[in-house]
Specification:
Structural class: alpha/beta
CATH architecture of the largest domain: 3-Layer(aba) Sandwich
Order of helices and strands: EEEEEHEEHEHEHEHEEHH
Strand content: 25-35%
CATH class of the largest domain: Alpha Beta
Number of strands: 12
Strand order of the largest sheet: 1-2-5-4-3-6
């Protein structure tokens, strides 16, 4: 039986420059008639833009009324960045979307939720916070590392009532989130920790959570969305198949994440 992911053709209905760093794409058309959201708040889809064959993964900011919203973080270079930077001329163009997948799985009875991420993780953190605060009374705290906090605050991107700590990155294409997490004053009781951002930072945090905090794998989700270095690389590896194959092979969580990181280093990330 084929396990190839489903693909959906879609049309760019609208392009909106939310801020200097964020572009919102509204996708729709008859090709999305069979698209069905997973309902998982950090779900992502692969996006293939015209003239390219490689997909890049983006969080589904919203799916309703047959329209799919993707908020794209723009950089100086990149397959999607360079295409999205063309402005309104991309409206009407055809793209391809892969079936959605998600990994957020906050346990029933969790007493708190901590969300940590950089700008690439902001769409997922916003949707997660909206989902959790609407469905429960679980307190949500966010650490967001963004180039311009005022820019994001002005968008009203995160829901009211969420405790947000705005952080400045140490420099362009750099992150210091691992140090931030190591200094967190953790709440009492059992909760859930979700984090996404630069891959090297995520590797450090996974080790911290497993070895220092001794958290069970059901209590956290930490994923690399991009890889830093001389040339920034966007996320191009879906963690789902790697995770399932690792579990089937009886590997530990740490071994599975090592496999994922190795796959990331061979291609690239968001």
């Amino acid at each position: 039986m084929s396990t190839r992911a489903l693909h959906y053709p879609a049309e760019v209905l609208r392009r909106e420059q939310l801020s200097p760093h964020l572009v919102r794409l509204t996708l729709g058309g008859a090709g999305l008639a069979g698209f069905a959201s997973t309902g998982v708040p950090d779900e992502w889809v692969g996006l293939v833009v015209p003239g390219q064959f490689q997909s890049r993964y983006y969080t589904v900011r919203d799916w309703s009324g047959g329209e799919l919203l993707l908020d794209v973080v723009v950089h100086e270079t990149g397959l999607v960045t360079e295409w999205a930077a063309r402005g309104d001329e991309i409206v009407g163009e055809q793209v391809t979307i892969t079936e959605p997948k998600g990994s957020f799985a906050m346990p029933d009875g969790a007493a708190w939720l901590l969300l940590v991420g950089d700008l690439t993780a902001l769409p997922a953190m916003a949707r997660i916070a909206e989902t959790v605060t609407t469905a429960s009374q679980v307190p949500v705290r966010v650490w967001a590392e963004v180039p311009d906090a005022d820019e994001v605050r002005g968008l009203g991107y995160l829901p009211a009532g969420v405790d947000v700590n705005w952080l400045a990155p140490p420099g362009p294409e750099e992150s210091r989130l691992a140090e931030v997490v190591e200094r967190i004053d953790w709440p009492d009781g059992a909760g859930y920790f979700w984090m996404a951002g630069e891959s090297a930072q995520m590797r450090a945090i996974r080790k911290h959570l497993m070895r220092e905090r001794a958290l069970p794998s059901t209590a956290y989700d930490v994923m690399g969305y991009w890889r830093g270095g001389a040339k920034r690389q966007p996320r191009a590896v879906d963690p789902g198949p790697i995770w399932r194959a690792g579990k089937a092979a009886g590997k530990s969580d740490e071994q599975i994440w090592a496999d994922y990181d190795a796959a990331q280093s061979g291609t690239g990330d968001r």
